[in-house]
# Entry
Amino acid sequence: MGAKADQTKSVILTAARERFAESGYEAATIRAIAADAHIDPSMVMRYFGNKEQLFAAAAEFDLRFPDLSGVPRAGLGAAMVSHFLTRWEEDDALVVLLRSATTNTEAAQRMKDIFTAQLMPSIAKLAPDDAPRRTGLIATQMLGMALSRYVLKLPPVVAMSREELIDWLGPTLQRYALG
# Structure
């Protein structure tokens, strides 16, 4: 694929992420995404096949969850909250996925897969005996915070600084990770 094709795909993915984030999976249409990208809908179909495949490409997300073995145990919760805030704020694909996961089973499954495949191995290193439960509880906090802050935009949560969120949520994640 040439540079122009790569650029076209990038423009389509950007438009798709924005549309899925704004409208959710069900309401987003290929035509609307194409209009947002200022291209013909046939180009979207050419590069991505259908809405499901476009969504899958737009919702690709790497948590880039760090190896926590070098973090002092007392700071694990704060480190996790800080990492999640950074990921939510620098890549709108996770917001797209979260918004869509509330109404679309494929998006919900993708979200489950991300947390299982990318978070659980790190938590298993910390607490091998109970990693699935601990990972699930960490996900409840991070997904709940993200839904409240980035999707629902609840004013008190949006108004909190990064440091306040870390201070409030860090001890909870700490407890979930280590007991």
Notes: Residues 3-58 form a domain with the Arc Repressor Mutant, subunit A fold (CATH 1.10.10.60).
